[in-house]
Write a structure and sequence with these properties.
6-stranded parallel sheet; Dihydrodipicolinate Reductase, domain 2; 490 residues; Rossmann fold; binds 6-O-phosphono-beta-D-glucopyranose
Length: 490
């Protein structure tokens, strides 16, 4: 890993939602912890005709909203804002790129990181203009935000365009789930603990559940989301990345390519789901109006910005299978939805039951171990084990007991960094292991495209579910068919 050197971080789309809510606040957090290399600058680029003072003021207002109160202080703010410079940049105006080039040339020894926080359709144009204006150096890096394309074909086209100017070693494709603490802990848990290492296969695991439930709806992004849907927005990237990390074989070491080689193998081995299998393996839903404990919630088609009646899915559940020795016969139940009952991201590894059960036969059903990896709202790991119910009255009655490791409580003196903060820091250090390689994205698209190609058929059904619920009741079928139920949403 390279030692961080003075860096120019050049953000395209610097007035957008992502920049204001995540990138600038993450840079603030790095600044606060003195992790931005000495002499680093932050060049913020957007179309609006404002100056640096106005941009700094906007950034200051948004930092007040998006940084935790106890982290905000004037001294850090001043240090961060003094690094920020704003340049107006319209992608079609050559003089704007020339001005950027002149600015960068004045600091030619700085490491350069271009952060494309714009829609992916502009990535090719920006790359071409950067090249024409001599902004691209052999050592610069480029960060690409998701969603990268609409399907495999468009994703490959974007990768081809960017790939004309940047090598794969220079490209950092963001999936912010890879920056979450528990995701990294998954590597530690799996590969540093022999107790799990030896059990992590079809001999010992009966099934795996991965749930990414969001309580929020579309949050003013209807026109983007309506073209994407939950499959492209959450499954193709975040959910399949979690699945790949759970299912991959041990990498030879922690280098980016060793880890990514193993993830690619899993994505390649995902069993395609044919049209006839979809009825039992895929459920799509869209939220109707409903309520949470606090308020009435509108239907997807009545959200702000909605245009007409849409059939875009806001919920997907899939019974996936991985065709290899480790996972033969072990279903992976995946589900993700917007406007669900609560924000909850968790991975549950269900271990098989004992082959011969010596306790009360009525208790056989409850007697298995579950490893629960929680990503949100709280990060932690817990293991459900069976213990004896205390007391002298009864024969041995067993009861599930939780061995709980809550990161916030256990490591209360250590702050857990935000995903973008960690990812930005890794780009500065030049470490690609938390970023997605081109072939990973493309295999993920292939699997998703194959499922979605059947959705235009008349027999494809979009099930309505009330906002604030656990999704369409039909999503229970894909797990109930295997005589199981989703964990924890009763
Ligand atoms: C983004 C999606 O990638 O992830 C959003 O585009 C989604 O639609 C968000 O809400 C969820 O991220 P998190 O970290 O809040 O689970």
């Amino acid at each position: 890993m390279n030692k961080p050197t003075a860096t120019d971080i050049i953000i395209f789309g610097a007035l957008g939602d992502l920049s204001q809510r995540k990138l600038i606040p993450s840079l603030y957090d790095l600044e606060k912890d003195h992790l931005l290399p000495h002499g680093s600058r932050i060049l913020c680029l957007a179309r609006q005709d404002i100056d640096t003072a106005q941009y700094r003021q906007t950034a200051r207002e948004n930092l007040a909203l998006h940084v935790e109160n106890d982290r905000l202080d004037e001294e850090t703010l001043a240090r961060l804002l003094s690094r920020i410079e704003y340049l107006t940049l319209d992608f079609n105006t050559d003089q704007h790129f020339q001005a950027l080039s002149t600015n960068l040339a004045k600091h030619s020894t700085q490491q350069r990181i271009f952060y494309f926080a714009t829609a992916a359709e502009f990535f090719g144009t920006i790359s071409t203009k950067l090249s024409e204006n001599n902004c691209i150096t052999d050592t610069c890096r480029v960060v690409l935000e998701k969603p990268l394309g609409f399907d495999r074909e468009s994703s490959s086209a974007i990768n081809d365009q960017v790939g004309q100017y940047f090598t794969e070693q220079q490209i950092y494709r963001i999936d912010h789930y890879l920056g979450k603490e528990t995701v990294q802990n998954l590597l530690a848990l799996r590969f540093a603990n022999p107790i799990f290492g030896t059990q992590w296969n079809q001999n010992h695991i009966s099934h795996v559940e991965i749930t990414i439930a969001e309580s929020v709806g579309i949050e003013g992004r209807w026109s983007y989301f309506d073209k994407a849907g939950q499959m492209r927005d959450m499954v193709q990237n975040h959910l399949l990345q979690l699945l790949a990390l759970v299912a991959m074989d041990p990498p030879d070491d922690l280098s980016a390519d060793c880890i990514r080689d193993q993830k690619v193998k899993v994505l390649r081995q995902l069993k395609p789901i044919s049209a006839s299998e979809q009825k039992h393996a895929v459920v799509c839903g869209q939220y109707a109006s409903g309520n949470n404990d606090v308020q009435l919630l509108p239907s997807y088609n009545s959200e702000e910005g909605a245009e007409g009646t849409s059939n875009t899915e806001t919920f997907v559940a899939i019974r996936a299978e991985i065709q290899n020795w480790r996972w033969a016969g072990v279903p992976f139940y995946l589900r993700t939805g917007k406007r669900m009952k609560q924000k909850l991201t968790q991975i549950i590894i269900h271990f098989k039951q004992q082959p011969h059960f010596i306790f009360d036969p009525l208790q056989h059903g409850i007697a298995s171990n579950k490893l629960i990896l929680s990503l949100q709202p709280n990060e932690g790991v817990s293991l459900q084990v069976q213990t004896k119910s205390p007391g002298i009255n009864n024969d041995i009655q067993i009861q599930p007991t939780i061995l709980d490791l809550n990161f916030n409580k256990e490591f209360k003196d250590t702050r857990t960094p935000h995903a973008y903060e960690r990812l930005l820091f890794e780009v500065i250090k030049g470490n690609q292991y938390l970023f997605v390689r081109r072939d990973e994205i493309e295999h993920a698209w292939t699997w998703c495209d194959n499922i979605m190609q059947h959705w235009s058929h008349p027999e494809h059904v979009l099930h309505k579910y009330p906002a604030g619920s656990w999704g369409p009741t039909e999503s229970e079928i894909i797990i109930r068919n295997d005589k199981r139920q989703w964990f924890g949403d009763q």
